[in-house]
């Protein structure tokens, strides 16, 4: 049996949330400078948000609201992905390719979040 959208989204958020907490320096540089306060606070905050969303999407009682909140969160962090492309202009072709690939990947992730919101499993 294949995992449903809620399980896939939850697993994705666990991995990315933990990565934000374990390797915050990787994400600090992509925090848009227009946000107030230190970049590290935004990195840790987004990692914790992803972990909370992972748990809320996993739970059937909170799944609908959490799926919708996840979609909004994924849209909200898109500017950081755009910033990554700009930051990595002078880096390796591999790093640039990964950064560019993340931009259109955001669309299926938002769609996954919306499907998770409707997932009865």
Instruction: Compute the separation of the termini in Å.
Output: 12 Å
Radius of gyration: 15 Å
Query: Which consecutive residue ranges, at least 5 long each, have pLDDT under 50?
Result: none
Q: Using the alpha-carbon principal axes, give the shape.
A: globular
The tally of structural domains comes to 1
Question: What is the count of β-strands?
Answer: 0
Description:
The chain has 121 residues and is mostly helical. It has one domain. It is built from 6 helices and no strands. The chain has helices at 5-22, 24-28, 39-58, 63-76, 78-87, 93-117. Helix 1 crosses helix 6, helix 3 packs antiparallel against helix 4 (63-76) and helix 4 (63-76) runs antiparallel to helix 6 (93-117). The longest helix has 25 residues, at 93-117. The protein is globular. The protein starts with a helix and ends with a helix. The relative contact order is 0.18. The mean pLDDT is 92.
């Amino acid at each position: 049996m294949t995992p449903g959208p809620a399980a896939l989204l939850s697993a994705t958020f666990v991995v990315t949330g933990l990565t934000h907490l374990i390797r915050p320096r990787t994400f600090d540089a992509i925090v848009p400078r227009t946000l107030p306060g230190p970049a590290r606070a935004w990195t840790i905050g987004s990692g914790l948000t992803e972990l909370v969303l992972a748990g809320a999407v996993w739970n059937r009682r909170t799944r609908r609201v959490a799926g919708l909140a996840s979609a909004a969160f994924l849209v909200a962090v898109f500017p950081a992905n755009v910033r990554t492309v700009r930051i990595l202009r002078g880096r390796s072709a591999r790093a640039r390719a990964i950064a560019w690939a993340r931009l259109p990947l955001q669309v299926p992730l938002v769609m996954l979040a919306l499907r998770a919101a409707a997932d009865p499993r």
